[in-house]
Amino acid sequence: MPRIPLFVLGLLGLALAAPARAQPLASPDCAALAAWSGQLGAEAGRTLTRNWRGQRALVLPGLLRAPVTEQTFGKPALAWSEAEVQQVGRMLNDCARDPAIGGARFALQEARRAVLDQAALLLTWRGRNRERLPREVQAISEHPFAPAILLFLRAVPAVTDQAGYDAAYRLMAQLPPALRRHADPLLGGMRYLLPEDVAEVITPAVERHLVAQREEAQAALVTPLAALPPDLGGLQRLDRVADQPLMAVLDAPGRATVEAAVAARRTAILADMDQALQGIVAEATADLQGFRTLLFLAQDPRRAALPEDRRAALDEASAARARAMASEAVAVSLVQLEGMDPHPRALPRALRLRRDVLGALEHFGRADLATGFATDSATRIGTLADAGLPVLVEALDKVPPTRQSINRLSQPERVLTELGEVAPQAAARWQAAVAARQQAIRDTLDAALAAEQARRDADRAAREAAIAEEAAREAGSLIGRRYRSRELELEFLDATRVLATDANRNVTVAGRYEEIAGNRIIVTLPDQNFVVTRDGPRLSGGRLVFERVAAP
Q1: For 96, which of 45, 195, 222, 327 is 20 to 30 Å away at the CA?
Q2: Structural contact between residues 501 and 508, judged by C-beta atoms closer than 8 angstroms
Q3: Cα–Cα distance measured from residue 107 to residue 43, given in angstroms and rounded to the nearest whole number
Protein backbone atom coordinates (compact mmCIF):
# COMPACT_ATOMS: atom_id res chain seq x y z
CA MET A 1 0.00 0.00 0.00
CA PRO A 2 1.52 3.42 -0.91
CA ARG A 3 2.59 5.64 1.97
CA ILE A 4 0.71 8.90 2.65
CA PRO A 5 3.13 11.86 2.57
CA LEU A 6 3.56 13.67 5.87
CA PHE A 7 2.33 17.01 4.58
CA VAL A 8 -0.88 15.39 3.27
CA LEU A 9 -1.56 13.86 6.67
CA GLY A 10 -0.98 17.26 8.28
CA LEU A 11 -3.51 18.86 5.94
CA LEU A 12 -5.92 16.05 6.77
CA GLY A 13 -5.60 16.82 10.49
CA LEU A 14 -6.24 20.50 9.83
CA ALA A 15 -9.24 19.67 7.72
CA LEU A 16 -10.73 17.55 10.49
CA ALA A 17 -10.40 20.37 12.97
CA ALA A 18 -11.33 23.26 10.65
CA PRO A 19 -15.14 22.98 10.23
CA ALA A 20 -16.00 23.55 13.89
CA ARG A 21 -13.51 26.38 14.24
CA ALA A 22 -14.50 28.24 11.05
CA GLN A 23 -17.49 29.73 12.82
CA PRO A 24 -16.50 32.96 14.66
CA LEU A 25 -16.82 33.28 18.42
CA ALA A 26 -19.86 35.27 19.58
CA SER A 27 -19.40 38.31 21.85
CA PRO A 28 -22.12 38.06 24.54
CA ASP A 29 -22.79 41.05 26.78
CA CYS A 30 -21.93 41.11 30.44
CA ALA A 31 -25.41 40.08 31.51
CA ALA A 32 -25.20 36.95 29.34
CA LEU A 33 -21.69 36.22 30.60
CA ALA A 34 -22.84 36.63 34.20
CA ALA A 35 -25.73 34.25 33.60
CA TRP A 36 -23.31 31.74 31.99
CA SER A 37 -20.79 32.09 34.82
CA GLY A 38 -23.45 31.52 37.42
CA GLN A 39 -23.92 27.94 36.18
CA LEU A 40 -20.30 26.92 36.94
CA GLY A 41 -21.25 25.00 40.07
CA ALA A 42 -24.42 23.51 38.64
CA GLU A 43 -22.51 21.97 35.71
CA ALA A 44 -19.62 20.64 37.83
CA GLY A 45 -20.83 17.09 37.27
CA ARG A 46 -19.74 17.31 33.64
CA THR A 47 -16.11 18.09 34.59
CA LEU A 48 -13.49 16.08 32.70
CA THR A 49 -10.24 15.31 34.58
CA ARG A 50 -7.08 13.66 33.28
CA ASN A 51 -4.82 12.77 36.20
CA TRP A 52 -1.84 10.68 35.09
CA ARG A 53 1.02 9.67 37.33
CA GLY A 54 3.84 12.22 37.41
CA GLN A 55 1.92 14.78 35.30
CA ARG A 56 -0.03 17.91 36.06
CA ALA A 57 -3.73 17.19 36.20
CA LEU A 58 -5.72 18.33 33.17
CA VAL A 59 -9.18 19.71 33.89
CA LEU A 60 -12.00 20.74 31.56
CA PRO A 61 -14.69 22.28 33.80
CA GLY A 62 -18.17 20.89 33.32
CA LEU A 63 -19.55 24.31 32.36
CA LEU A 64 -17.39 24.35 29.21
CA ARG A 65 -18.85 20.97 28.19
CA ALA A 66 -22.46 22.02 28.84
CA PRO A 67 -24.85 23.04 25.98
CA VAL A 68 -25.17 26.50 27.53
CA THR A 69 -21.58 27.27 26.46
CA GLU A 70 -22.39 26.79 22.76
CA GLN A 71 -25.60 28.77 23.24
CA THR A 72 -23.68 31.64 24.82
CA PHE A 73 -20.61 31.77 22.56
CA GLY A 74 -22.02 30.42 19.31
CA LYS A 75 -19.72 27.36 19.30
CA PRO A 76 -18.73 24.65 21.81
CA ALA A 77 -15.60 25.17 23.91
CA LEU A 78 -13.90 22.19 22.24
CA ALA A 79 -14.00 24.20 18.99
CA TRP A 80 -12.32 27.29 20.45
CA SER A 81 -8.95 28.23 19.09
CA GLU A 82 -6.08 29.28 21.36
CA ALA A 83 -6.84 32.92 20.60
CA GLU A 84 -10.53 32.43 21.34
CA VAL A 85 -9.74 30.89 24.73
CA GLN A 86 -7.81 34.04 25.62
CA GLN A 87 -10.61 36.19 24.16
CA VAL A 88 -13.19 34.54 26.46
CA GLY A 89 -10.86 35.13 29.42
CA ARG A 90 -10.58 38.84 28.57
CA MET A 91 -14.34 39.22 28.17
CA LEU A 92 -14.93 37.66 31.60
CA ASN A 93 -12.24 39.84 33.15
CA ASP A 94 -13.66 43.04 31.61
CA CYS A 95 -17.16 42.27 32.84
CA ALA A 96 -15.89 41.41 36.32
CA ARG A 97 -14.36 44.92 36.49
CA ASP A 98 -17.56 46.62 35.38
CA PRO A 99 -18.99 48.45 38.43
CA ALA A 100 -22.49 47.84 37.12
CA ILE A 101 -22.11 44.06 37.31
CA GLY A 102 -22.81 44.06 41.05
CA GLY A 103 -22.96 40.68 42.83
CA ALA A 104 -22.10 38.67 39.70
CA ARG A 105 -18.45 39.77 39.95
CA PHE A 106 -17.38 36.70 41.96
CA ALA A 107 -19.05 34.27 39.54
CA LEU A 108 -17.33 36.00 36.58
CA GLN A 109 -13.95 35.79 38.31
CA GLU A 110 -14.46 32.10 39.08
CA ALA A 111 -15.46 31.44 35.48
CA ARG A 112 -12.39 33.31 34.24
CA ARG A 113 -10.14 31.13 36.43
CA ALA A 114 -11.91 28.03 35.15
CA VAL A 115 -11.21 29.09 31.56
CA LEU A 116 -7.65 30.41 31.84
CA ASP A 117 -6.22 28.44 34.76
CA GLN A 118 -7.86 25.09 34.03
CA ALA A 119 -9.36 24.71 30.57
CA ALA A 120 -6.75 26.71 28.63
CA LEU A 121 -3.99 24.09 29.09
CA LEU A 122 -6.14 21.23 27.86
CA LEU A 123 -7.82 23.16 25.03
CA THR A 124 -4.56 24.65 23.78
CA TRP A 125 -2.57 21.41 23.74
CA ARG A 126 -5.53 19.45 22.49
CA GLY A 127 -5.64 21.51 19.34
CA ARG A 128 -1.89 21.29 18.81
CA ASN A 129 -1.78 17.52 19.38
CA ARG A 130 -4.70 16.84 17.07
CA GLU A 131 -2.43 18.14 14.32
CA ARG A 132 0.93 16.82 15.57
CA LEU A 133 0.23 13.29 16.79
CA PRO A 134 -1.01 11.87 13.44
CA ARG A 135 2.34 12.95 11.98
CA GLU A 136 4.13 10.98 14.71
CA VAL A 137 2.03 7.93 13.86
CA GLN A 138 2.92 8.34 10.18
CA ALA A 139 6.63 8.71 10.97
CA ILE A 140 6.58 5.45 12.93
CA SER A 141 4.58 3.73 10.18
CA GLU A 142 7.22 4.56 7.54
CA HIS A 143 9.82 2.42 9.31
CA PRO A 144 10.45 -1.06 7.80
CA PHE A 145 8.17 -3.80 9.10
CA ALA A 146 8.76 -5.02 12.61
CA PRO A 147 6.23 -6.82 14.85
CA ALA A 148 7.07 -4.48 17.72
CA ILE A 149 5.89 -1.48 15.66
CA LEU A 150 2.52 -3.05 14.93
CA LEU A 151 1.96 -4.02 18.54
CA PHE A 152 2.89 -0.54 19.76
CA LEU A 153 0.68 1.31 17.27
CA ARG A 154 -2.21 -1.03 17.97
CA ALA A 155 -1.98 -0.03 21.65
CA VAL A 156 -1.89 3.73 21.00
CA PRO A 157 -5.67 4.34 20.57
CA ALA A 158 -6.20 2.82 24.03
CA VAL A 159 -3.98 5.47 25.66
CA THR A 160 -6.91 7.31 27.19
CA ASP A 161 -6.02 6.60 30.83
CA GLN A 162 -3.09 5.57 33.01
CA ALA A 163 -3.50 1.85 32.35
CA GLY A 164 -3.52 2.34 28.59
CA TYR A 165 -0.46 4.59 28.84
CA ASP A 166 1.44 2.03 30.93
CA ALA A 167 0.67 -0.78 28.48
CA ALA A 168 1.81 1.24 25.47
CA TYR A 169 4.89 2.48 27.33
CA ARG A 170 6.01 -1.09 27.93
CA LEU A 171 5.64 -1.85 24.23
CA MET A 172 7.57 1.31 23.34
CA ALA A 173 10.62 -0.14 25.07
CA GLN A 174 10.74 -2.82 22.33
CA LEU A 175 10.88 -0.32 19.47
CA PRO A 176 14.10 0.47 17.60
CA PRO A 177 15.84 3.45 19.25
CA ALA A 178 15.29 5.65 16.17
CA LEU A 179 11.52 5.37 16.56
CA ARG A 180 11.36 6.21 20.23
CA ARG A 181 11.86 9.91 19.45
CA HIS A 182 8.48 9.74 17.72
CA ALA A 183 6.83 7.25 20.08
CA ASP A 184 7.63 9.14 23.28
CA PRO A 185 5.98 12.45 22.29
CA LEU A 186 3.11 10.48 20.78
CA LEU A 187 2.33 8.86 24.12
CA GLY A 188 2.93 12.10 26.01
CA GLY A 189 0.50 14.01 23.76
CA MET A 190 -2.29 11.44 24.04
CA ARG A 191 -3.29 12.77 27.45
CA TYR A 192 -4.53 15.98 25.83
CA LEU A 193 -6.87 14.22 23.39
CA LEU A 194 -10.46 13.41 24.17
CA PRO A 195 -12.03 10.10 23.12
CA GLU A 196 -13.63 11.74 20.10
CA ASP A 197 -10.24 13.17 19.07
CA VAL A 198 -8.69 9.69 19.22
CA ALA A 199 -11.52 8.31 17.10
CA GLU A 200 -11.16 11.12 14.53
CA VAL A 201 -7.40 11.51 14.07
CA ILE A 202 -5.48 8.67 15.79
CA THR A 203 -7.45 5.49 15.19
CA PRO A 204 -7.77 6.02 11.40
CA ALA A 205 -4.02 6.66 11.07
CA VAL A 206 -3.22 3.52 13.07
CA GLU A 207 -5.75 1.42 11.15
CA ARG A 208 -4.27 2.48 7.80
CA HIS A 209 -0.89 1.21 8.90
CA LEU A 210 -2.24 -2.03 10.34
CA VAL A 211 -4.11 -2.78 7.12
CA ALA A 212 -0.98 -2.06 5.05
CA GLN A 213 1.13 -4.37 7.20
CA ARG A 214 -1.22 -7.34 7.52
CA GLU A 215 0.51 -9.44 4.89
CA GLU A 216 3.87 -8.94 6.58
CA ALA A 217 2.34 -9.67 9.98
CA GLN A 218 0.87 -12.85 8.58
CA ALA A 219 4.26 -13.86 7.19
CA ALA A 220 5.89 -13.10 10.57
CA LEU A 221 3.56 -15.66 12.13
CA VAL A 222 3.69 -18.30 9.40
CA THR A 223 7.38 -18.31 8.36
CA PRO A 224 8.83 -19.50 11.73
CA LEU A 225 6.50 -22.51 11.76
CA ALA A 226 8.69 -24.47 9.35
CA ALA A 227 11.64 -24.30 11.78
CA LEU A 228 9.71 -25.71 14.74
CA PRO A 229 11.24 -28.99 15.96
CA PRO A 230 9.19 -32.14 15.34
CA ASP A 231 8.62 -32.85 19.02
CA LEU A 232 6.35 -31.95 21.92
CA GLY A 233 8.07 -28.58 22.25
CA GLY A 234 7.15 -27.78 18.65
CA LEU A 235 3.52 -28.72 19.30
CA GLN A 236 3.43 -26.52 22.39
CA ARG A 237 4.74 -23.56 20.40
CA LEU A 238 2.05 -24.20 17.77
CA ASP A 239 -0.56 -24.05 20.52
CA ARG A 240 0.69 -20.60 21.50
CA VAL A 241 0.43 -19.09 18.01
CA ALA A 242 -3.26 -18.32 18.47
CA ASP A 243 -2.41 -16.20 21.50
CA GLN A 244 0.27 -14.14 19.73
CA PRO A 245 -0.58 -10.41 19.80
CA LEU A 246 0.02 -10.18 16.04
CA MET A 247 -3.04 -12.38 15.48
CA ALA A 248 -5.21 -9.47 16.61
CA VAL A 249 -3.76 -7.34 13.80
CA LEU A 250 -4.95 -9.73 11.09
CA ASP A 251 -8.37 -9.71 9.47
CA ALA A 252 -10.47 -12.87 9.31
CA PRO A 253 -8.89 -14.23 6.08
CA GLY A 254 -5.41 -13.58 7.48
CA ARG A 255 -6.19 -15.41 10.71
CA ALA A 256 -7.63 -18.30 8.71
CA THR A 257 -4.41 -18.51 6.69
CA VAL A 258 -2.28 -18.63 9.83
CA GLU A 259 -4.56 -21.22 11.41
CA ALA A 260 -4.31 -23.37 8.28
CA ALA A 261 -0.50 -23.10 8.35
CA VAL A 262 -0.49 -24.09 12.02
CA ALA A 263 -2.72 -27.09 11.28
CA ALA A 264 -0.48 -28.19 8.40
CA ARG A 265 2.67 -27.91 10.50
CA ARG A 266 0.96 -29.79 13.33
CA THR A 267 0.12 -32.63 10.92
CA ALA A 268 3.73 -32.74 9.73
CA ILE A 269 5.14 -32.78 13.28
CA LEU A 270 2.73 -35.52 14.35
CA ALA A 271 3.74 -37.57 11.31
CA ASP A 272 7.42 -37.19 12.23
CA MET A 273 6.71 -38.17 15.83
CA ASP A 274 4.66 -41.15 14.68
CA GLN A 275 7.51 -42.27 12.44
CA ALA A 276 10.02 -41.92 15.30
CA LEU A 277 7.84 -44.01 17.63
CA GLN A 278 7.34 -46.67 14.97
CA GLY A 279 11.13 -46.76 14.63
CA ILE A 280 11.46 -47.43 18.36
CA VAL A 281 9.06 -50.36 18.00
CA ALA A 282 10.98 -51.82 15.06
CA GLU A 283 14.35 -51.48 16.82
CA ALA A 284 13.26 -53.00 20.16
CA THR A 285 15.68 -55.80 21.09
CA ALA A 286 14.50 -59.32 21.96
CA ASP A 287 15.35 -59.09 25.66
CA LEU A 288 14.11 -57.50 28.84
CA GLN A 289 15.26 -54.06 27.70
CA GLY A 290 13.21 -54.46 24.54
CA PHE A 291 10.17 -55.44 26.62
CA ARG A 292 10.70 -52.41 28.83
CA THR A 293 11.02 -50.15 25.81
CA LEU A 294 7.69 -51.34 24.45
CA LEU A 295 6.02 -51.09 27.85
CA PHE A 296 7.26 -47.55 28.45
CA LEU A 297 6.06 -46.58 24.99
CA ALA A 298 2.49 -46.67 26.32
CA GLN A 299 3.38 -43.84 28.73
CA ASP A 300 5.40 -41.82 26.22
CA PRO A 301 3.85 -38.30 26.01
CA ARG A 302 4.53 -38.29 22.27
CA ARG A 303 2.13 -41.22 21.90
CA ALA A 304 -0.56 -39.29 23.80
CA ALA A 305 -0.19 -36.41 21.34
CA LEU A 306 -0.93 -38.59 18.29
CA PRO A 307 -4.40 -38.72 16.72
CA GLU A 308 -6.51 -41.59 17.98
CA ASP A 309 -6.10 -43.71 14.84
CA ARG A 310 -2.31 -43.34 14.87
CA ARG A 311 -2.18 -44.23 18.58
CA ALA A 312 -4.16 -47.38 17.88
CA ALA A 313 -1.83 -48.31 15.01
CA LEU A 314 1.23 -47.71 17.17
CA ASP A 315 -0.19 -49.82 20.00
CA GLU A 316 -0.93 -52.66 17.60
CA ALA A 317 2.57 -52.53 16.10
CA SER A 318 4.07 -52.50 19.61
CA ALA A 319 1.98 -55.48 20.73
CA ALA A 320 2.79 -57.42 17.55
CA ARG A 321 6.51 -56.79 17.99
CA ALA A 322 6.33 -57.88 21.65
CA ARG A 323 4.44 -61.08 20.79
CA ALA A 324 6.89 -61.92 18.05
CA MET A 325 9.98 -61.54 20.22
CA ALA A 326 8.47 -62.95 23.44
CA SER A 327 9.98 -66.45 23.15
CA GLU A 328 13.42 -65.12 22.39
CA ALA A 329 13.14 -62.53 25.17
CA VAL A 330 12.22 -65.24 27.67
CA ALA A 331 15.20 -67.35 26.66
CA VAL A 332 17.57 -64.35 26.87
CA SER A 333 16.19 -63.42 30.30
CA LEU A 334 16.76 -66.94 31.64
CA VAL A 335 20.33 -66.83 30.36
CA GLN A 336 20.80 -63.48 32.10
CA LEU A 337 19.55 -65.00 35.36
CA GLU A 338 21.90 -67.92 34.94
CA GLY A 339 24.89 -65.67 34.44
CA MET A 340 24.37 -63.33 37.38
CA ASP A 341 27.10 -63.03 40.00
CA PRO A 342 26.30 -65.23 43.06
CA HIS A 343 26.18 -62.30 45.41
CA PRO A 344 23.31 -60.86 47.48
CA ARG A 345 23.45 -57.62 45.54
CA ALA A 346 22.48 -59.52 42.36
CA LEU A 347 19.26 -60.79 43.91
CA PRO A 348 17.28 -57.48 43.57
CA ARG A 349 18.21 -57.33 39.86
CA ALA A 350 17.13 -60.92 39.36
CA LEU A 351 13.79 -60.41 41.07
CA ARG A 352 13.13 -57.23 39.10
CA LEU A 353 13.99 -58.98 35.82
CA ARG A 354 11.53 -61.76 36.64
CA ARG A 355 8.83 -59.29 37.69
CA ASP A 356 9.21 -57.14 34.56
CA VAL A 357 9.28 -60.04 32.12
CA LEU A 358 6.17 -61.59 33.67
CA GLY A 359 4.42 -58.21 33.54
CA ALA A 360 5.35 -57.75 29.88
CA LEU A 361 4.18 -61.26 28.95
CA GLU A 362 0.85 -60.59 30.63
CA HIS A 363 0.53 -57.12 29.06
CA PHE A 364 1.24 -58.37 25.55
CA GLY A 365 -0.98 -61.47 25.78
CA ARG A 366 1.63 -64.24 26.06
CA ALA A 367 0.28 -66.02 29.11
CA ASP A 368 1.31 -69.27 27.43
CA LEU A 369 4.95 -68.37 28.07
CA ALA A 370 4.42 -66.80 31.49
CA THR A 371 3.80 -70.04 33.41
CA GLY A 372 6.95 -71.75 32.24
CA PHE A 373 9.06 -68.64 32.72
CA ALA A 374 7.69 -68.18 36.25
CA THR A 375 8.79 -71.69 37.22
CA ASP A 376 12.18 -71.61 35.49
CA SER A 377 13.06 -68.14 36.77
CA ALA A 378 12.03 -69.07 40.33
CA THR A 379 14.38 -72.05 40.22
CA ARG A 380 17.26 -69.94 38.97
CA ILE A 381 16.60 -67.24 41.56
CA GLY A 382 16.51 -69.85 44.34
CA THR A 383 19.87 -71.21 43.14
CA LEU A 384 21.25 -67.67 42.99
CA ALA A 385 20.06 -66.97 46.54
CA ASP A 386 21.66 -70.18 47.89
CA ALA A 387 24.92 -69.36 46.11
CA GLY A 388 24.97 -65.94 47.70
CA LEU A 389 24.13 -67.19 51.19
CA PRO A 390 27.79 -67.49 52.35
CA VAL A 391 28.43 -63.91 51.28
CA LEU A 392 25.29 -62.86 53.18
CA VAL A 393 26.50 -64.65 56.32
CA GLU A 394 29.89 -62.98 56.01
CA ALA A 395 28.21 -59.58 55.67
CA LEU A 396 25.94 -60.30 58.64
CA ASP A 397 28.97 -61.14 60.78
CA LYS A 398 30.22 -57.61 60.16
CA VAL A 399 27.01 -56.00 61.43
CA PRO A 400 27.93 -54.18 64.67
CA PRO A 401 26.51 -55.79 67.83
CA THR A 402 24.09 -53.05 68.85
CA ARG A 403 20.40 -52.78 69.73
CA GLN A 404 19.93 -50.71 66.58
CA SER A 405 21.33 -53.58 64.50
CA ILE A 406 18.83 -55.98 66.05
CA ASN A 407 15.97 -53.61 65.23
CA ARG A 408 17.21 -53.10 61.70
CA LEU A 409 17.55 -56.85 61.10
CA SER A 410 14.03 -57.33 62.49
CA GLN A 411 12.65 -55.32 59.56
CA PRO A 412 13.00 -57.57 56.50
CA GLU A 413 14.09 -55.93 53.27
CA ARG A 414 11.65 -55.92 50.39
CA VAL A 415 13.97 -58.25 48.48
CA LEU A 416 13.69 -60.88 51.22
CA THR A 417 9.90 -60.59 51.25
CA GLU A 418 9.74 -61.00 47.48
CA LEU A 419 12.23 -63.89 47.61
CA GLY A 420 9.84 -65.63 50.02
CA GLU A 421 7.13 -65.43 47.34
CA VAL A 422 9.39 -66.70 44.55
CA ALA A 423 11.69 -69.23 46.29
CA PRO A 424 10.35 -69.93 49.80
CA GLN A 425 12.99 -72.49 50.77
CA ALA A 426 15.89 -70.25 49.80
CA ALA A 427 14.20 -67.33 51.57
CA ALA A 428 13.84 -69.45 54.73
CA ARG A 429 17.59 -70.12 54.71
CA TRP A 430 18.29 -66.39 54.33
CA GLN A 431 15.88 -65.60 57.15
CA ALA A 432 17.55 -68.24 59.33
CA ALA A 433 20.93 -66.59 58.73
CA VAL A 434 19.49 -63.22 59.71
CA ALA A 435 17.86 -64.69 62.83
CA ALA A 436 21.11 -66.40 63.81
CA ARG A 437 22.99 -63.13 63.57
CA GLN A 438 20.30 -61.41 65.62
CA GLN A 439 20.63 -64.05 68.33
CA ALA A 440 24.43 -63.81 68.26
CA ILE A 441 24.16 -60.04 68.73
CA ARG A 442 21.72 -60.53 71.61
CA ASP A 443 24.10 -63.02 73.24
CA THR A 444 27.00 -60.61 72.84
CA LEU A 445 24.98 -57.74 74.29
CA ASP A 446 23.74 -59.89 77.20
CA ALA A 447 27.30 -61.03 78.01
CA ALA A 448 28.55 -57.45 77.86
CA LEU A 449 25.69 -56.33 80.08
CA ALA A 450 26.41 -59.11 82.64
CA ALA A 451 30.12 -58.19 82.67
CA GLU A 452 29.28 -54.54 83.17
CA GLN A 453 26.91 -55.36 85.99
CA ALA A 454 29.59 -57.52 87.68
CA ARG A 455 32.08 -54.68 87.40
CA ARG A 456 29.62 -52.23 88.92
CA ASP A 457 28.86 -54.62 91.77
CA ALA A 458 32.57 -55.06 92.48
CA ASP A 459 33.11 -51.28 92.39
CA ARG A 460 30.23 -50.74 94.81
CA ALA A 461 31.51 -53.38 97.20
CA ALA A 462 34.99 -51.85 97.12
CA ARG A 463 33.58 -48.40 97.85
CA GLU A 464 31.49 -49.71 100.73
CA ALA A 465 34.51 -51.52 102.21
CA ALA A 466 36.64 -48.39 101.95
CA ILE A 467 33.94 -46.35 103.64
CA ALA A 468 33.59 -48.90 106.44
CA GLU A 469 37.35 -49.01 106.91
CA GLU A 470 37.55 -45.24 107.06
CA ALA A 471 34.63 -45.06 109.49
CA ALA A 472 36.32 -47.60 111.77
CA ARG A 473 39.55 -45.68 111.61
CA GLU A 474 37.90 -42.38 112.46
CA ALA A 475 35.75 -43.77 115.29
CA GLY A 476 36.80 -43.15 118.86
CA SER A 477 37.56 -40.18 121.09
CA LEU A 478 37.85 -36.66 119.65
CA ILE A 479 40.43 -35.67 122.25
CA GLY A 480 43.51 -34.22 120.58
CA ARG A 481 41.96 -34.06 117.09
CA ARG A 482 41.88 -30.89 114.97
CA TYR A 483 39.30 -30.09 112.24
CA ARG A 484 39.25 -27.09 109.88
CA SER A 485 36.62 -25.40 107.74
CA ARG A 486 37.04 -22.35 105.50
CA GLU A 487 36.52 -19.97 108.41
CA LEU A 488 37.03 -21.90 111.65
CA GLU A 489 39.43 -24.45 113.18
CA LEU A 490 38.41 -26.72 116.07
CA GLU A 491 40.86 -28.37 118.53
CA PHE A 492 39.31 -30.84 121.02
CA LEU A 493 41.28 -30.60 124.31
CA ASP A 494 39.53 -33.21 126.43
CA ALA A 495 36.14 -34.85 126.84
CA THR A 496 34.24 -31.52 127.11
CA ARG A 497 36.46 -28.57 126.13
CA VAL A 498 37.24 -27.31 122.63
CA LEU A 499 39.26 -24.40 121.21
CA ALA A 500 37.93 -22.52 118.20
CA THR A 501 40.21 -20.32 116.08
CA ASP A 502 38.73 -17.79 113.62
CA ALA A 503 40.93 -18.02 110.51
CA ASN A 504 39.99 -14.54 109.32
CA ARG A 505 40.58 -12.70 112.63
CA ASN A 506 43.25 -15.08 114.00
CA VAL A 507 41.40 -15.16 117.33
CA THR A 508 41.04 -18.29 119.46
CA VAL A 509 38.18 -18.75 121.93
CA ALA A 510 37.38 -21.53 124.36
CA GLY A 511 34.15 -23.47 124.19
CA ARG A 512 32.51 -26.73 125.16
CA TYR A 513 31.23 -29.72 123.25
CA GLU A 514 29.07 -32.74 123.91
CA GLU A 515 28.65 -35.97 121.92
CA ILE A 516 25.10 -37.28 121.69
CA ALA A 517 23.41 -40.23 119.99
CA GLY A 518 23.79 -40.69 116.23
CA ASN A 519 27.42 -39.53 116.12
CA ARG A 520 26.28 -35.95 116.54
CA ILE A 521 28.31 -33.31 118.38
CA ILE A 522 26.97 -30.11 119.95
CA VAL A 523 29.60 -27.34 119.93
CA THR A 524 28.98 -24.30 122.14
CA LEU A 525 31.15 -21.20 121.70
CA PRO A 526 30.85 -17.76 123.28
CA ASP A 527 29.26 -16.18 120.20
CA GLN A 528 27.69 -19.19 118.46
CA ASN A 529 26.76 -22.85 118.71
CA PHE A 530 26.15 -25.53 116.09
CA VAL A 531 25.63 -29.26 115.63
CA VAL A 532 27.80 -31.43 113.35
CA THR A 533 27.81 -35.14 112.57
CA ARG A 534 30.77 -37.48 112.23
CA ASP A 535 31.28 -38.40 108.56
CA GLY A 536 34.56 -40.30 108.27
CA PRO A 537 37.38 -37.72 108.43
CA ARG A 538 34.83 -34.90 108.38
CA LEU A 539 32.41 -33.21 110.71
CA SER A 540 29.42 -32.13 108.63
CA GLY A 541 26.70 -29.70 109.54
CA GLY A 542 24.98 -28.62 106.33
CA ARG A 543 27.00 -25.81 104.74
CA LEU A 544 29.49 -26.04 107.65
CA VAL A 545 32.02 -28.83 106.90
CA PHE A 546 35.20 -29.46 108.89
CA GLU A 547 38.03 -31.60 107.46
CA ARG A 548 40.36 -33.43 109.85
CA VAL A 549 43.89 -31.91 109.68
CA ALA A 550 45.83 -33.64 112.48
CA ALA A 551 45.95 -37.07 114.08
CA PRO A 552 45.49 -37.50 117.89
Answers
A1: 45
A2: yes
A3: 13
